[in-house]
Amino acid sequence: MIRLVEGSDLSVRRTLRELGVSRSTFYVCYERYRENGDAELEPRKPAPRRHWNRIAERERERMVEAALADPEKSPGELARQRTDRAGQFISESSVYRILKAHDLITSPAYVLIRVADRFQHPTTHPNEFWQTDFTYLRVVSWGWYYLSTVLDDYSRYILAWTPGTTMKASDVTETLDLSRAKAGVDEVAVVHRPRLLSDHGPCYVSGDLTAHLRRHGMQHTRGAPYHPQTQGKIDRSLRRALQPPPLPRVTGQRDSSLCISQAAADDLDAPRTDKEEDNGSSQTAEPTRCIGEQTRRKCLL
Questions:
Q1: What average pLDDT score do residues 139-159 get?
Q2: How many helices (H) and strands (E) does the chain have?
């Protein structure tokens, strides 16, 4: 490149433009060539980047030795041990990377939880076992609301439900109070109070709910983690209660442009009774047609 520029009849700028080389690159190379000759233009390996906070190799070896001496300790425990004994701080993530580079990180010990397909002791009568859970409700222009519900496991009857803007233990106790009043378990002397089944939500593991249940003589059972089928009954009940209503059916015997439900069609086609016939000549087919138009109009809305 330098020879071409020196032997060119054009200016340096035009020559470099034809070669596609920037002037700054050319002048840097030309300055190095003038100082040290051709040897300075040989390609050189880039110098390794030096990080000011890089852990020294000796410290890395010490962490590996400590991990081999006590393989039961986790990277966090090894990091705290190094800080306590040597007075040198090293983060848990750094210890983890060092041990992983030396293949000293073992796979975590997973705890397998076996869950049954059905309850071991199924319910035999109402008010023996209650299920409770929260669900979300979005009210347009108002925001999100939370519905606390208590369902009887045997009859699948919803004893009580309370909407609110929070998911606290006080909301759960309020729903339980309504359920006990509805079932009347406090009005008679019973040997076994209803047992309560819930998930592991913060409001269900709080001490306030535990004290409330103990005060009323109720036992509390929590479902298995990551197994929503345990509370399948109340989940299905809430899903069925909150699903949108079905669209009205269109009868094939009438005009397809009119959307009218089957119940309204049966009402219109029902024969008139004697009482309706005795009301006078004012009840003719015209009022019936008006009622039909009103029903159709409501269905279309």
A1: 91
A2: 12, 5
Taking a C-beta distance cutoff of 8 angstroms, is the pair 81, 75 a contact? no
SS3 content of the chain, % helix, strand, coil (to 5): 45, 10, 45
Amino acid at 87: G
- Residue identified by tokens 């009940």 is 237
- Dihedral angle computed from the Cα positions of residues 67, 70, 72 and 77, in that order, rounded to the nearest 10 degrees: -70
Output DSSP code: residue 40. Answer: G
Give the integer Cα–Cα distance in Å for 241 and 269: 32
Which token pair is 64?
């590996």
**Is-above-0.70 flag for pTM?**
no
Whether residue 15 contacts residue 4, with contact meaning beta carbons closer than 8 Å, is answered with yes
- Classify burial at 145, counting beta carbons within 10 Å of its beta carbon; exposed 0-12, middle 13-18, buried 19 or more: middle
Taking the chain, what is the end-to-end CA distance rounded to the nearest angstrom?
Answer: 83
CB 2 within 8 A of CB 33: yes
179 — pLDDT class (breaks 50, 70, 90): very high
Give the neighbor-by-neighbor strand order of the sheet with 158-164. 158-164, 143-152, 129-139, 195-198, 220-222
The DSSP code for 228 is G
